[in-house]
Design goal:
Layout lengths: L2 H20 L8 E6 L4 H16 L3 E6 L3 H13 L6 E5 L5 H5 L7 H6 L2 H4 L4 H4 L2 E2 L2 E2 L1 E3 L7 E5 H7 L7 H13 L3 E4 L4 H16 L1 H8 L4 H4 L2 H13 L12 H9 L3 E5 L4 H7 L8 E5 L7 E2 L3 E4 L6 H15 L1 H11 L15 H10 L5 E2 L2 H4 L2 H16 L5 H13 L3
Parallel strand pairs: 1-2, 1-3, 8-9, 11-13
Antiparallel strand pairs: 3-12, 4-5, 6-12, 7-9, 7-10
């Protein structure tokens, strides 16, 4: 990491802490347990920004991390339904907490949101919409994450003696040269959400935004079963052959490390991978490159993370929950947290002069409303999302499963979705 990057991040963190410390200390400080699934090196650095800012206000952040979102969410939901809620918990933007909100188990943040004019500050506006049920706001969005990125190891390509690719198609063309140099073409973790995200990224890049919308948003059956999406499934099948032979890599950050260590040429992963590059001291444009929309279509979805606050029958706890929500939306914390996380802030009024080249590419893409898409968590129910992930995982792990068969099952799932 450059000296400039370190000093900018340190200054942003210091600003966040000074703002919180300068605020009036609560009359009754509280300890709040916070559940989340941020456990990688870059993610842990980002969590520390939030915890330090909250603690500086006089309260205490009690960290309760659970590795892996797929593992964490059932535990979080079970605790809330079982009457043993945490004070605050991460979910992704979208419908993951919808039933908990509908059951009246989450703290209503509407008055705080109106006081601090969140609707005027948050962009895109649908992030607040995802927190809203029947006109009331139940969560605080903290960042914008997009999956549609390809990360390229410039060092791996230098070792292979070929020019790094500018897009997915060039990457596929260079794969044989990488193999010949003993380099894995495609770094890929074997968790279902990673594979599903990679497929969605390829669908967007290779078929275009109109086809993507018709498939994932409108659920147009002609498009779902058509030639264009069939061609994407063929390309996804070909991508199976580009991963490590007998691939045993599971977690996304282990796959990202294959790019960091120049063991692999490219990796399809969300912009949170930037946190790992930063933690490893790498600089965009020097050791690695980042290609939004896989270099073909710089169109990004606006997934990411929000925090909900389960109802706890204690006035002091509720007051501290509101303080935490306010802290997460504050301008200084939005900057410092997202610089560490590799994500983009949800506030449209923050100064990101210290953003690295990849963050600037993301901001440029999102500056055009036509380039903004909803995430899968915002368009599908958890059940449908699970079915899609199961199918794509089965396809990726079974070379005997044909792209044509998987394509039709995929179309069936989306056609019959809620």
């Amino acid at each position: 990491m450059s000296t400039f990057r370190l000093s900018a991040l340190a200054a942003a963190r210091a600003a966040a802490l000074s703002v919180c410390a300068a605020a009036t200390l609560p009359s009754q400080a509280a300890e709040l347990e916070v559940t989340h699934w941020w456990t990688s090196g870059g993610e842990a650095a980002a969590v520390k920004v939030l915890a330090d800012a909250f603690n500086a206000g006089g309260d205490t952040w009690v960290d309760s991390a659970i590795a892996g979102g797929a593992n964490a969410r059932p535990i979080i939901i079970s605790r809330i339904l079982g009457g043993e809620p945490m004070a605050a918990t991460q979910f992704n933007h979208g419908r993951q907490a919808e039933e908990l909100v509908a059951e009246g188990l989450m703290l209503d943040l509407t008055e705080l949101a109106e006081k601090e004019v969140w609707k005027e500050l948050v962009r895109p506006a649908k992030l607040i919409d995802s927190c809203t049920l029947e006109g009331r706001i139940y969560c605080v969005p903290v960042n914008i994450h997009s999956f549609q990125w390809m990360w390229v190891s410039l060092e791996a390509y230098a070792k292979a003696g070929v020019a790094p690719p500018a897009d997915w198609n060039e990457f596929v063309a260079t794969a044989p040269a990488l193999r010949a140099a003993g380099i894995i073409p495609l770094a890929m973790g074997n968790e279902s959400w990673q594979l599903n995200g990679a497929f969605g990224s390829m669908l967007l890049a290779l078929s275009g935004i109109d086809i993507w919308r018709k498939a994932f948003v409108e659920h147009d059956e002609d498009v779902l079963r058509g030639e264009t999406t069939a061609a994407v499934w063929d390309a996804f099948g070909a991508a199976r052959e580009l991963q490590q032979e007998n691939n045993t890599v599971q977690s996304w950050n282990d796959a990202t490390y294959q790019i960091i260590n120049a063991q692999a040429g490219a990796h399809i992963m969300g912009d949170w991978a930037q946190g790992e590059f930063a933690a490893a001291g790498l600089t965009a444009g020097e050791q690695y490159d980042c290609l939004p929309g896989l270099g073909i279509a710089p169109v990004l979805d606006t997934g990411g993370d929000a925090f909900y606050f389960p109802k706890i029958d204690d006035a002091e706890t509720m007051a501290a929950q509101l303080r935490m929500a306010s802290m997460m939306m504050s301008k200084s914390v939005q900057v410092s947290f997202n610089l560490a996380k590799g994500s983009l802030p949800v506030r449209g009024d923050v100064n990101l002069d210290d953003a690295n080249e990849c963050m600037k590419k993301g901001l440029a893409a999102l500056s055009n409303p036509d380039n903004i898409l909803p995430s899968g968590d915002q368009t599908f129910t958890p059940d449908t999302q699970g079915q899609l992930e199961d199918l794509i995982t089965e396809f990726w792990s079974d070379p005997d499963m044909s792209a044509a068969d998987a394509h039709m099952i995929w179309a069936d799932i989306i056609t019959n979705s809620d």
